[in-house]
Amino acid sequence: MQQLAPATPIESEIIGRSRRDGNRLFKDWYEALGRADQAEEPAAYVFVMGSVAEILRAFDFHLVFPEINSLQTAIRKTALTYLNAAEDYGYSTDVCGYVKADVGVHLKDRQHPNGRIPRPRLVIATTMCNTYVKWVEIWERLYGCKVFVFDIPGRRGIGWTAELGSDQFEADRRYVQTQLEELIAICEQITGRPFDHERLVTVLEQVNRMAADWKAVLELNQNVPAPFNAMGDAITYMGVLSAYRGTEEGARYMAELRQEIELKVRSGLGSGIEERFRVYGVGPACYPAFRRYLELFSAWGAVYVNSEYLGYAGGGLDRGIQYDLSRPLESLAEQLLLTGQRRMSNMFFSQDELADGARDWHADAIVYHSVKSCRTVSTGMADSREYVVRTRGVPALLIESDLVDPRLWSEAQIKNRVDAFFEALGSRKAAAAKGVS
Amino acid sequence: MLALDQRERLEDLVEGCLELAIDPSFPAVGEWLATHPSGKVLGHFQVYFPEELAEAAGLLPLKIMGAGGLEAKQADSHIGSFVCSICRTSLELGLGGRLSFLAGFITHPICDAARNMAGIWGRNFPDQLSQILYLPQNATSSGAAAYLAAEYRRVALELSRRSGVTVTDDRLRERIACGNENRRSIRELYRIKRERPWLLPATEAYGLIRAGSAMPREAHNRLLARALTLLADRQGRPQDRVRVVFEGGFCEQPPLDMIHLIEEACYIVDDDLLIGQRFLTEDVPTDGDPFLALAESYLERSTYSCVQHDDRKPKETMLLQRIRQSGAQAAILAAAKMCEPGMDEQVAYQKALQAEGIPFLLLEFEERMTGFERMRMEVETFVESILFD
Ligand code: SF4
Ligand code: SF4
Fold it and tell me: Which one of A130, A132, A136 would you pick to mutate in the ligand 1 pocket, going by the greatest count of ligand atoms within 8 A of its CB?
């Protein structure tokens, strides 16, 4: 590792700030949810892929992200209690664990390890994941709340595109925009407030800023060494991207994160792992064994430099968004479609984009983490892996466990696979280096 | 078409249909190709697909719904073990070369596994059209019908490019009329099954309907007409049996032996087996814009399934309606192994039936399962508990 000059006081204040501030924002958010519960303020349950936060913020809904709640039960090592409650209620062991962990929270009177979650007044399922639709039907039955299935037609196949303005795009856009208008009418009814167009413009502008900085942050990780670990550090960034989308705090956080990451790049600071391998991730981490999961890679000096997961779980902002503030609703409909089709429903067809991403982020390999709970991201992984290895010549590893269920984490087995892979990758890199010299 | 519609006895006709249904070499497709040497076949995955679109483009639609008798030797290395069997055996049919006649494969947003199939299929069969037909999931949106009509037009155009046959409004109307006849016959079979189940066991109705998934519509219409004629002459006496609704056969198909063992103990008076083939509950209008007519029928004149969300059709309410309208006393709530929507819905159904005091039995199945002894015992015990309650 390169020897660096000691950090200046300003640098030491900036470096690590995103983690500290991210944790604080997260805590504040859960505390606000607890207060909302007590005050019975309206809360909307939404999903990270297509949260429609832009509309909901304009009505001052509190946003509840059940996926983040489920993830947090795993990180806090409490997932099993909730999973058991849902299974006792009747859900099969083979049902998505995120759904079950959340059902468990509701069966326990919405007591979550991070605080009490307010009851839903409105729930919105985008169709980026089909299981979202089944999930919202559960709350509908539990609470009788208003359910809105926000249908965002996805990418139709490999190589399929619908250019902005084309007939095809317009047909989809009209459908999405009509639904936005219908959603607004529902929000007006629930809150008793008229829709505030000015407020929407402000929110969109904040998302524009947040997205521009987030895109820059991701691109900064193309540097060697990578300034952050896209699987470890980025979980905090991802949380802020969802929970604070369309807020001043969120936009500011992302600007400051960018400043921190730029500083790290200028100072040649890496992610804290002595970087020997760079990997591009597909799929989430195993959150019930998060630290161990990361250690399996860091032990080999393997740093996640980017991941497909960050693209969709961060709400599709990875390539920036530029809402046209002069025609807010139409622009929102367009961007929901574009980000939905490019990022969120693209995972079925993303093989070439993954290989391109690995190339652009100078990754040595792609690591697929197939999680049993999530058939959306995992069903085609083995096939995609086979494609990138065979057709694009990118080394790729596939490991299997889960993102919430600790019973599916078998460390010895995964460790064997990871170790064998990096041993071979190391030999390959060494041989290639010799060949070049 | 394999002379099925000329069989003298209903039993023989049904036997022929059941043989066709489980034969992964698709003999009826082979027969069609022999007489249409430049013909092309379109595979479409469960649950509902407007086959009229493919037919109007000159393609033979073939419902891809797995193959219970097949071992997914090659497919297992492409698809995770946590995915239902129908996806794996459907892919196996392709990888094993049994679907080499396909010009394309269309799947739907019924679940996360099925949407993934478009990517898997596209990577493995790059010469075929492999796409998702995005059926709308916000069925009550005022934009849904226009959107779906546009989506149908898009698919029709894609299919025309493959077949070289333009889908005109008139051709499509003609195919809709043929489809209407088909659906009418199927509705009639179900009416008989509900009203006089002793005349038409569920396995027979199932065989007759399933045969249509892999043959030209006209041939199936003739076959169903023949079956209805033969049924009119069938004699039988009702037995003192429990009447049940079977729910859970909307996508992956339970093995025939399983349906059979259930009906050895009771009458299956209604079910959701192959619901896609009778998803539209009324004739599709043959005047006006045919794409819009198909779209509106899907949204406004259709039954329910756990892979479609529609505020107007809460699934539990619909199931209770199915139970009441068929005069059933109980329900068998089945779910295919690893089927996320099926397993989710099973819980909701269970709670609703509990609240209504309707007896039910939960079953899990896999198209490829072979041992049925335990299931037989469970069904018998369940039936006895109702009979002697
Ligand atoms: S299937 Fe995947 S994306 Fe869908 S709810 Fe479960 S974890 Fe989330
Ligand atoms: S059986 Fe269930 S999980 Fe499998 S493809 Fe059908 S709906 Fe999807």
Answer: A132
pLDDT tens profile B37-83: 999 999 999 999 999 999 999 999 999 999 998 999 999 999 989 99
DSSP-assigned letters across all residues of A216-230: HHHHHTTSSS-SS-T
Coil, helix or strand at residue B41: strand
Q: What are phi and psi of B257, to 5 degrees?
A: -60, -30
Q: Which residue in B109, B119, B307 is closest to A349 by CB distance?
A: B119
Q: Which residues contact A318 (CB under 8 A, 6 or more apart)?
A: A214, A215, A218, A310, A311, A343
Average pLDDT, chain B: 96
CA triplet B358, B360, B363: central angle to 5 degrees?
A: 165
The answer to whether B350 contacts chain A (CB < 8 Å) is yes
Distance of CA A234 to the CA centre of its chain: 9
Per-residue pLDDT at A437: 52
Tokens found for residue A13: 């204040």
Judge contact between A314 and A242, C-beta under 8 A: yes
Answer whether A50's CB lies under 8 Å from A336's CB. yes
Choose among B112, B130, B136: nearest Cβ to A131.
B112
Residues 374-413 of A with CB under 8 A from B: 374-376, 378-384, 386-387, 400
Q: What is the pLDDT of residue A189?
A: 97
Q: Which band of pLDDT confidence, cut at 50, 70 and 90, is reported for residue A300?
A: very high
What is the distance between the alpha carbons of residues A361 and A306, in angstroms, rounded to a whole number?
Answer: 7
Q: Is B77 on the interface with A (CB under 8 A)?
A: yes
B130, amino acid identity = S
Long-range CB pairs of A319-328, under 8 A, 24+ apart, other chains included: A319/A215, A319/A343, A320/A211, A320/A212, A320/A214, A320/A215, A321/A207, A321/A208, A321/A211, A322/A208, A322/A211, A322/A212, A323/A204, A323/A205, A323/A207, A323/A208, A325/A201, A325/A204, A325/A205, A325/A208, A328/A197, A328/A200, A328/A201, A328/A204
**Single-letter code of the amino acid located at B351:** K
What would the pLDDT profile of A256-277 be if each residue is shown by its tens digit?
Answer: 999 999 999 999 999 999 999 9
For residue B144, give the amino acid letter: A
A348 interface with B at CB cutoff 8 Å = yes
Q: Which residue in chain B is spatially nearest to A150 when comparing CA positions?
A: B138
pTM above 0.95, yes or no: yes
Q: Is A174 a residue whose pLDDT tops 60?
A: yes
In DSSP terms, which residues pair with B174 in a beta bridge? none
Kindly give the interhelix angle for A234-243 and A248-266, rounded to the nearest 10 degrees: 160
Q: What count of residues does chain A have?
A: 437
The answer to whether residue B4 scores a pLDDT higher than 90 is no
**B338 by DSSP, 3-state: which?**
coil
Give yes or no for a contact between A375 and B112, defined as CB atoms under 8 angstroms apart.
yes
Does B226 score more than 80 pLDDT? Answer: yes
Asked if the model's pLDDT at residue B159 lies above 90, the reply is: yes
Pairing mode, strands A115-116 and A111-112: antiparallel
DSSP class of residue A407 equals G
CB of B148 within 8 A of CB of B284? no
Q: Is the pLDDT of residue B21 over 90?
A: no
Asked if pLDDT for residue A2 goes beyond 50, the answer is no
Residue B256 phi/psi, 5-degree rounding, is -55, -40
Closest chain B CA to residue A153: B134
- Nearest-angstrom CA–CA distance, B234 and B199: 7
Helix segments in A221-327, DSSP class H: 234-243, 248-266, 290-298, 308-313
